[in-house]
């Protein structure tokens, strides 16, 4: 599946590559494939909703980077989150990803801040081969680990966890 918001090549959307991202708050922009998103829950505090985690794919399908918006901004950004779309994200914070929360092999994560703008790209979008990362018959090179078990006295068979969007 190739995602392209425009069948006819147009003037390209100006953006930074994932490789050129620099830490800190700035006016950087990325244009990327928006793979999926899910609710982030705090398992230590009765499954408290803490925000939304998202996965972005760069235009060369070389890198997957994750993004996060905290609970206070989740409702604001939710209408902009559409899986399998091409998006342009402006004005965000780039931070080093803690090993404790690392879900991709990229060293950074993108944090949505109050100034962040997310727009679906309709014209001039880079063509992104999402199928190269969505083929479930093989292991993704961007997979960092696999959850095998969770130790907690509060977990039981009747526990319900929301499914990814």
Automatic annotation (TrEMBL):
It comes from the Eukaryota. This is DUF223 domain-containing protein. It comes from Brassica cretica.
């Amino acid at each position: 599946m190739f995602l392209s918001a425009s069948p006819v090549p147009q003037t390209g959307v100006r953006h930074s590559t994932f490789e050129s991202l620099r830490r800190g708050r700035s006016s950087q922009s990325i244009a990327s494939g928006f793979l999926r998103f899910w609710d982030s829950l705090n398992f230590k505090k009765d499954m408290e909703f803490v925000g939304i985690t998202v996965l972005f794919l760069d235009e060369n399908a070389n890198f997957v980077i994750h993004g996060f918006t905290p609970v206070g901004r989740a409702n604001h950004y939710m209408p902009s989150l559409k899986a399998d779309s091409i998006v342009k994200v402006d004005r965000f914070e780039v931070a080093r990803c803690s090993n404790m929360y690392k879900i991709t092999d990229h060293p950074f994560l993108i944090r949505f801040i109050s100034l962040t703008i997310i727009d679906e790209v309709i014209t001039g979008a880079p063509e992104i081969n999402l199928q190269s990362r969505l083929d479930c018959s093989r292991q993704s090179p961007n997979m960092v680990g696999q959850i095998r078990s969770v130790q907690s006295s509060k977990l039981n068979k009747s526990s319900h966890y929301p499914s990814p969007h």
